[in-house]
Amino acid sequence: MRRQKKNGFFIALAAPGIIWLVLLFIVPFYAVLAIAMGKLNELFESPVAVWNPFAWSSENLIDVWHDIFGSAAFAGPIVVRTIIYVAIASLLCLLIGYPAAYFVARFAGRRKGLFLVLLVAPFWISYMMRMLAWVDLLQTGGYVNKALGWVGISPVNWLGGKPATVVLGLVYGYIPYLILVLYAGLDRIDPALIEAGRDLGLGRIRTFVRVTLPMSRQPILTGLLITVLPMLGDYYTNQLLSGAASTSMIGNLIQGQLGTPGLEGQGAVLSLLLLLVLLVPMIYYVIATNRSSQVAS
Amino acid sequence: MAHPREGWQGHGVPRKLTRRSFLGRSAGAALALGSVPLLDACASALAGSGTVQLPRPNNPVKWPVFAGNEAIKTGLAPETNATLQVYNWVAYVNQAVVNSFAKKYKCKVQVTTFNTMDEALSKLRSGLQFDVLMGATVDVLGQLIESKLVQPVNHSYIPNITQAWPDFTNPFYDQGWRYTVPYTIYTTGISWRKDLVNENPYTMANPWAMPWQSKYKGRVAILDDYREGISLGLMKNGIYDLNTTDYRQINLARHALEELSSLVNVRIDNNDYTEVPDGDTWIHHAWSGDMAAAASYMPKGVNVDVVGYWFPTDGRGPVANDTNVVLRSATNPVLAHEYLNYFLDLPNVIENISFNGYMQPLTGVTPQVLVKEQILPSSLLSTIVLPSYFRRGVAELQLPVDVDALWQQAWLVVSNGI
After folding, report:
1. Chain A residue at shortest CA distance from B220
2. Given CB atoms, is A256 within the 8 Å cutoff of chain B?
3. C-beta separation of B95 from B354 below 8 A
4. CATH second-level architecture of B83-185+321-377?
5. pTM attached to this predicted model
6. N or C: lower Cβ tally within 10 Å for chain B?
7. Which residues contact A137 (CB under 8 A, 6 or more apart)?
8. B223 to chain A nearest CA, in Å?
9. Each residue's pLDDT tens digit, B115-131
10. What is the C-alpha separation between B234 and B407, in angstroms, rounded?
11. Does domain B186-318+396-416 sit in CATH 1.20.1270.90?
């Protein structure tokens, strides 16, 4: 009787989470799957979700496969471009974000709170608004070009479909997430361990390489995961800061398909494929986290 | 029972040509086009397997009135204490005119907006209820009517139709104006900055090819619309059938746009009305209604005279019009009719254009009036749509489903850049 009561308590405790998972993940996921494997309403050129798995059609899947790998593939180069942009942007995020997080965690002292507020400040404004602000700053007569003009550099057409603008936009948009995660991880490193490294005769750089960096591996992994996942699906940064076909990313392709009558089914397939690809780093992350917690215990 | 539109086939495209084989054939077809004459797509041959054909100027359509979906009776009084639900594109109506209607008819008007026609159709089909749909494009009328989302209009409530161009009492897409009244009318042309671009499209042999100039790399943009985009590619190649069902022509347009992308790194967006005045874009494939509003977006100290808009002087270019319709789900159908009528009355129309930029096809809306009312600068008179354009211009109309898929696929490839 008591055991039953205990079980009921735990079920009640888990219920909100389970309901949340079912309503906001499993049902929408199945809906996307039903559209991906569904049919087309010929009059409206709109997708018809097929809920019965036995009636699913593989037509959209085959189309997307040919789009990526077929003889007339056009999505393949977009996938490659996306991977390159995201890789460069992530590396830049890390190169900029790590020193910033390290500084706040180790040297900010009493002003740590102030720096944290400054780091969180970008979150007070929506992502879209921040990107729109960049559109204003980067336009031909914008402040960036005016500033360049003061040092004798002629105006740059930043918004004319430049890959560099898109990559920097991604860096700017997602770097706060990385810095916060890195800060949380670096702040937890026991200063005594670093001092021990110094006491044992290591210089500043070697202490960092041999002690601090290995201990920040987990935060780096977490931070990169948090930034890479949304970057891969991002379409708004490219749309606002470039708009050129030559910088289109996988998110733009999915958005284009989902917004095109008759092609929504293929957009759904592509979304699911992206999800599958993103599962790989997620699984790696879970395994790495488990390993490190086992080592720690 | 099969739907009247079920199994529609375009004659210019082989039956077995799927969008997949279309892509596969693209490279070879592009090469072959130099020597093989193009097939002329025959609009009148676009017969569906059902009772209704695709509307074309040479194939006018009188839509049927379905049982159970007849127009409201004559002589009814407008609903009182009502809230008229209007469904419209974003920023496509002057709220001041809406408010004055509400005041006159002692009602409330709630305007809900959509971003794409596809979104609007999708929401209407899902059961969302509105009284009026503003800005319904001509290419979706078949879908709206045959799925009984709209109701026929009772002409007795819309006497102001006499103020509209006579063409609109019997347009080819809705003979006898059974379901629609005209809303806006516009052309698609080329906008450019006269102070930054050396060429003047009015003196060019083929102004549609104006964007294809590598010296303007990074300064060229085209409209983000699959019909407009592919049509530009067609017209650049001298093809003016903007409803072509010939996959080789669609392919040719696609290759022209891909060439444009690699030549000038073309931007694809609908910000013609801000980018050209700003000077960020020097040549923009543009809508007349957008450019008519250019004066409002000029940077401080820059005169609107530097912005130009070209549309063929003979009127042979893309001309389109949007319509207003009463939805079948209307809970205030009489008030909805009055609303349609209100937006066909000259003073209201002038006030609406002053905000909207897009012209309405009323006989009283003349270039002289628009300049006198300071709605349009004299340097942008070319954005005005004349009645003759509507007759001589080329319209982008509803395509058979399989052909539409080819257009969309071509655009998807162009807009995502290879």
Report:
1. A160
2. yes
3. no
4. 3-Layer(aba) Sandwich (3.40)
5. 0.80
6. N
7. A143, A144
8. 11
9. 888 889 889 988 899 99
10. 11
11. no
